[in-house]
Structure prediction request, 419 residues.
Amino acid sequence: MQQPELLAPAGNLEKLRTALLYGADAVYVGVPGLSLRGTSAEMSLEDLALGVSEAHTQHVRVYAAINTFARKADLDQAARCLPDWAATGVDALIVSDPGLVRLARRRVPQVPLHLSTQSNTTNAEAVRFWQDQGVSRIILARELPLCEVGEIAAAVPSMELEIFIHGAMCMAYSGRCYLSAWRNRKSANSGDCTQPCRWEYRLSESTRPDDPLVLEEDDRFSYLLSSKDLCLLEHLPEVLASGVAGVKIEGRMKSSYYLAVVTRTYRQALDALCLHQETYRCDPNWMEELKTVSHRGYTTGFAFAEEKINESSPAIKNIQTHEPAGMVVGYDDVRKQLRMAVRNFLQAGEDMELLLTKETLPVDTRSMTDEEGNGIDRAHAGNLIRVPLPFPAPKGALLRKKTAGAKTQGPARKPAENG
Ligand code: SF4
Prediction:
């Protein structure tokens, strides 16, 4: 069984480094400058070049997404920018627009092209069509059952295929939706969806505006617009058996903490599966880990069901059991103290955990200090503090706070940091 490439999202340089630390084989990033829209999921050219350089030293590949459906101005901009993007050393460009495919083939023929899931490729003939256009990998439609993924892989073995295995699902065909552009001026077509399908909506009758009907789920009804999140962790043997070359985690706008937990979990599961194929079992602790980050309930999506629409969430609120506490910025060898940048309110004595690549360790917060060594009983986001730790931890490692039981939070109006 060939181990597929584990791809993690990297909305910025910090997240790229997080993905490297927690075991991604490849990262995908947004490229700067297309149509000057400037989305929050893009890196600057300088950060991209630095990120590519750092990734390559660890033998991790970087794919740059320009998966917008381009208008003329976008194409003109792309024609100017393609050589700059290529010069950063990215390993492939992820595109969806046929015009951009053709343009990239002419302007930067040395850079491989991957076709975005937003092109909704669902059959072997479409795969052959894109192969004829010079595409070397296709990220298949999320709406495709795994059995058909396997059939396509068998029918066109010369094409690398990739699928999403984790993350948010659309209620529209992937990304072909104007809800975010309409409600938030952030376009899914630019990879910048703010997921307003997950907000709480009310339906009101025009003569009774103060008596709205809340669109929520009970035993008989479901939210009209919101899907649970995709999770194929418990089905990795079937995923690998389908013959895909890459498995992808969704979420360039998710937090570093979310990225750390999800990437680490899939890394551990894939490694275990490939090492012990015969005896492999999905460790229940992995699933529990995925429940620690903000999600809306998990579903296998379309993987095992034909013509099945996405399940809506039984609860309108996001679910999580832990939240980010901070990030390691250094280690004081003399005082045996971990230096951390706080990302949340933190109280002395509160449970905190350090996420290492292969394990999670408790960290004592009872005697935390500021950078000058003064004891403190609380810290706030943005503070630099120290906590005792007998061994060094890697810079960029994430720390989290335990919360008592499952925690819910309001509608995801700002999904960028909902990890
Ligand atoms: S608003 Fe929802 S359905 Fe629309 S593109 Fe965004 S995630 Fe998909």
